[in-house]
Structure formats: C-alpha cells, structure tokens
C-alpha cells in the first residue's frame, strides 16, 4: 500500500499561499498584558538607534505566553520576541552575551509551541511579518508591506518582501505538483506533463521576482545595516559571542545556546521544489556517488556522518512545515516516473525545463550573494587593511552595529594571527551554493541537458564571482577571508577539509 499523498491543509500549508499563513499575520496581540511588547515594537527602530532598547527590555517584566489566544497570536509573539532578542543582542556597541528573562522566558515558550528554535528565522522575519497594502488584492510584491524591521529602511522591507512575494507566487504550485504525484501513480502522463509545464513557468517567474531585489535593496545597506541584526549565535566567536548566548530564563535551567542566524535556506518552498523534482543535495564537498572516502576506508574507519546544511535548515522551519516536507519525501515519484517514460518526449522536456528553471534561479541567487556579500566583504577587508597600514596604533572599533564584523576573524584591536589562505574570498559560501546549483541539474533526462545543467558550462554568475574573488598580492598577505552565510554552520571538518572555510 502506497502512503497517501499528503494534504497541504493538514500541515498548515495553504493551497493558494503555500507556506505563508492562510490568514494575514495579526498586527497586534489582543490581550492587554502584551501592550508592553506592542509599545516596544511601535518604537522599535528609535529605541535601537538611540541604544535604549536594552534598558527598556531589562526593565520589562516577564510576561508569560498563557494569554496568547490564536495560532496567529503565537506566531506574532514569536516574530516580535525574536526581533527584540536580536535587537537586544546586536543593538549595542558590543553584542550582549546574555538574553534576559523578560525575553527568554516567553520566547522559549512560544518557540516550543511552534517547534522552532528561539532565534530569528525565515518564519519570524518573512513568513509571519507581512501585510497586504490592499486587503482585496493579491500578495504581489507591489501590494506588500512589512510589520517589523530593525532599521525602518525600505531596503530592509524589500529584502523580506521579495521572499514573501516569492512564497505567494510559488504557493499554488504545491497542490499542482501533489496532483502530479497522484497522476504519476495513475499513469496519467498528460496531467503530469501539464503540471510540470505549469511548474516550469512558475519557477521562471520566481527568477524574475528574485532579481527585483536589486530595485530597492542596496547592497551597502544590506551588508552594513541589516545583515548584522540577522546573525545568530553559532560560530560567532569572532563577533564577540565565543560561547553563544546565555538564555537566562530566570531559572536554574538557564543555559548557553548556539543557533544559526536567519536564512532563506530555511524556506520550505525551495526545499519542496527539490523534493518534488527528486533533486538531492549532498554534504558540501562530497561528489556524486561518493560514500566514504578511500583513505578512510583504507584505514578501516567507520563512515563519518557528514554535515548536510540544507537538511539541517529544516530544524529552523515551523514543525508542521518540516513534517510536510518529510511526508512529501515519502511519496515523491516524478523523477522515477519520467525516468521510466523516457520515450514520452513532451514529459521529459517539461521535467528538464523545471530543472533548468530551478538551476537558473540558483544561478541568479549566486550572483546576488556575490554582489550583496562577497563584494561588500572584500571592500570592508581592504578598507580595514588600509586603515591598519596608515596607523601604527590600534584602530578603535567604530561605534555601532555596522562595526559588528562577524565575517572577519580579527577585530582591529586584536593581534594579527597569520593563517594559510584556504581559498579565494567567499570560499565558504560559493562552493556550497554552486554545488547546490549543479546538483539541481543532475536528474536531467536528456544527456545533453544534463551536461549543460551540471556545471560544465560557465554562467554569468561564475564569471562574475571569478572576477570578484580574484586574488591580489595584498590578499595573500591579509586576514584569512571567512565569508560565511548567516545560517552558515560549516566547519572545516564538516566541509570535508578544504573546500569550505569556517
Ligand atoms: C540579498 C539577498 C540574499 C542574500 C545576500 C542571500 C544570501 C544567502 C546565503 C549567504 C546563503 C547561504 C546559507 C546561509 O544563509 O548561511 C543563502 C542560501 C539560500 N538562499 Fe539566499 N540570499 C538572498 C536572498 C534570497 C532569496 C530572495 C531567496 C529566495 C528564493 C534565497 C534563497 C536561498 C536558498 C534556497 C538558499 C539555500 C541554498 C540553496 O538551496 O541553493 N535567498 N542565501
Ligand atoms: N543568508 C543571508 C540572509 C538571508 O538571505 C535571509 C535572512 C533572513 C531572512 C531572509 C533571508 N533571505 C531573504 O530574502 C545572509 O547570509 O546574509
């Protein structure tokens, strides 16, 4: 007996809006005890800018979650508490290593309820943080606004809203592809083909939406003003959180914790696309068909479980969404169906078109990461080098959040540790993203298409990154570049030694 094809509504997934809530996020918690939180949120950016947020939160009493009435309220509580937590941690001259009970206590309660980690996630800043401008109109990018931002900037709003609009646009492809799974079971080739054609079209439109990021989110504002607030507490030693954050809930169970920061890798939609098409992602650095390395086998070592970042990100998705992906994984059959029907040309072309569109989406994304992170990080590094060279004294840390340099191994007032270069700028991110991109093309049916889609071809993104990350003589002498993603939970060992930094 085959397991039933999952019903999205059983997992809090909307047939129209996908992983966005079926009802718009609530904009205010109804019970008067939460007025204090809401007042902080009403003044959030000015409290942060004037560096008063910590004092206000330190004076805040513990307000437990018992008065939250609806699921929408639990979601709002989670969203605002994670904004407050990150504002508290990153909104001072130095990051705070302790989160006080007024935040920790209710945050642990709501995180437990929603089966999410107590940290800012894609759910808290994107999925549950939007409102339509006109209620009667669709959730298009031009009809969306955010509920909360750290900076009050259009750039930050836009950064979140592009993702929201993408979720809304991609939502309807969920029931379409679930129907295709049923159709494949019934050997209804026409329906599978039609569904794949519609899905390819949607993936193409998602690519168009993704590049609208450039319209209103400036890379400088993103890198220096927005991104620092989204950082987590894992691998954050160099930013001033060597042990992570102490979640002080006022009890004896208070502990140090480490979590990855917010990332779109936490989007269930993109993972759904991979699953339904049969795209598989391996741990960064491992090749196709590779199980255990030869040298390991020679030494008789037991296979070492390797870190798979994309899978790990499921722990940062709301519980029901995580379970939905698991259920879809149990029934995904499209790849097998197409492989078993290679003579049906239209079906194969439609399937390969989906892979090509998803690959193109990832290619556009890599180009974006280059412009928003790699280039900006290089600029900062060469600036701090110039400053060091022009001064024999220590360079004081600049005041404010922009100086939180969590992608750099040294602060200006620390002594220089020279380490061997591990790769060009961006080695941590780019091999990971390129591998995910190339894996997207691997299932292609047509031999020629597979060659084209699995990395044999140099794309615009490849050329841009090669150009941006070329080494200069100064780089060889400089700090080791450690450009990592916010959610980046890599270590050299996890990465298989050498491919990935950090
Ligand atoms: C300025 C905009 C963006 C930047 C700088 C950026 C940066 C990154 C980085 C650094 C990663 C590596 C994982 C990590 O976070 O540690 C990542 C992963 C990812 N990002 Fe983005 N991202 C941006 C926007 C988006 C948007 C709008 C999407 C929507 C589709 C997206 C989708 C993904 C996905 C799916 C991954 C996981 C890797 C994969 O599946 O290929 N990103 N992003
Ligand atoms: N991974 C990105 C952050 C990122 O993409 C992100 C973080 C929180 C919420 C949404 C995100 N992506 C949005 O469009 C970074 O490392 O800067």
Automatic annotation (TrEMBL):
Q: Name one GO molecular function term.
A: metal ion binding
What InterPro entries has UniProt attached to this entry? Indolamine_dOase (IPR000898), Trp/Indoleamine_2_3_dOase-like (IPR037217)
What does the record give as the reaction this protein catalyses?
L-tryptophan + O2 = N-formyl-L-kynurenine
Extract one GO BP annotation from the record: L-tryptophan catabolic process to kynurenine
Output the Gene Ontology cellular-component terms: cytoplasm
- What keywords are annotated for this sequence in UniProt? Dioxygenase, Heme, Iron, Metal-binding, Oxidoreductase
Highest taxon of source: Eukaryota
Keyword Metal-binding attached: yes
Q: Which principal EC class is assigned to this enzyme?
A: oxidoreductase
Can you tell me which residues bind heme b?
365
Q: What is its EC number?
A: 1.13.11.52
Q: Which Gene3D superfamilies match?
A: 1.20.58.480
Heme keyword on record: yes
Q: Where is this region: Disordered?
A: 283-306, 380-424
Basic and acidic residues compositional bias, start-end: 380-392
| Function summary | Produces N-formyl-kynurenine through the oxidation of tryptophan.
The family assignment reads:
Belongs to the indoleamine 2,3-dioxygenase family.
Descriptive protein name: Indoleamine 2,3-dioxygenase
* Organism name: Knufia peltigerae
């Amino acid at each position: 007996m085959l397991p039933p094809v999952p019903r999205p509504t059983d997992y809090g997934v909307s047939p129209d809006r996908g992983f966005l809530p079926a009802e718009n996020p609530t904009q205010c918690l109804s019970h008067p005890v939460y007025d204090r939180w809401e007042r902080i949120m009403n003044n959030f950016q000015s409290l942060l800018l004037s560096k008063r947020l910590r004092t206000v939160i330190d004076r805040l009493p513990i307000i437990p979650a018992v008065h939250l009435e609806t699921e929408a309220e639990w979601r709002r509580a989670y969203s605002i508490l994670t904004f407050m937590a990150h504002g508290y941690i990153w909104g001072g001259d130095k990051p705070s290593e302790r989160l006080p009970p007024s935040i920790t206590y209710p945050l642990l309660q709501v995180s437990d309820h929603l089966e999410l980690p107590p940290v800012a996630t894609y759910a808290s800043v994107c999925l549950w943080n939007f409102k339509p401008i006109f209620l009667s109109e669709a959730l298009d990018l031009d009809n969306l606004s955010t509920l909360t931002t750290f900076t009050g900037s259009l750039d930050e709003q836009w950064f979140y809203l592009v993702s929201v609009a993408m979720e809304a646009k991609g939502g309807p492809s969920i029931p379409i592809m679930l129907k295709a799974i049923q159709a494949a079971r019934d050997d209804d080739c026409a329906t599978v083909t039609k569904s794949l054609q519609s899905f390819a079209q949607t993936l193409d439109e998602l690519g168009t939406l993704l590049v609208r990021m450039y319209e209103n989110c400036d890379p400088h504002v993103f890198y220096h003003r927005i991104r620092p607030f989204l950082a987590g507490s894992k691998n954050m030693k160099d930013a001033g959180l060597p042990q992570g954050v102490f979640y002080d809930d006022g009890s004896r169970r208070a502990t140090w914790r480490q979590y990855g920061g917010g990332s779109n890798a936490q989007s269930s939609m993109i993972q759904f696309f991979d699953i339904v098409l049969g795209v598989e992602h391996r741990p960064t650095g491992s090749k196709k068909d590779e199980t255990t390395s030869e040298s390991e086998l020679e030494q008789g070592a037991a296979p070492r479980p390797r870190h798979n970042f994309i899978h790990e990100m499921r722990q940062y998705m709301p519980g029901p969404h995580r379970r939905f992906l698991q259920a879809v994984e149990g029934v995904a059959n499209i790849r097998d169906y197409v492989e078993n029907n290679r003579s049906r040309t239209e079906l194969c072309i439609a399937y390969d078109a989906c892979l090509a569109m998803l690959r193109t989406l990832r290619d556009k994304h890599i180009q974006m990461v280059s412009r928003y992170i790699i280039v900006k990080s290089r600029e900062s590094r060469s600036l701090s080098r110039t400053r060091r060279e022009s001064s024999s004294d220590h360079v004081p840390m600049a005041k404010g959040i922009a100086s939180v340099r969590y992608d750099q191994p040294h602060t200006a007032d620390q002594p220089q540790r020279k380490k061997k270069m591990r790769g060009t700028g961006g080695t941590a991110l780019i091999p990971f993203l390129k591998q995910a991109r190339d894996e997207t093309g691997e299932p292609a049916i047509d031999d020629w298409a597979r060659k084209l889609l699995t990395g044999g071809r140099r794309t615009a993104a490849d050329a841009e990154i090669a150009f941006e990350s070329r080494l200069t003589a100064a780089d060889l002498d400089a700090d080791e570049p450690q450009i990592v993603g916010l959610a980046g939970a890599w270590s050299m060992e996890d990465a298989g030694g050498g491919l990935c930094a950090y």
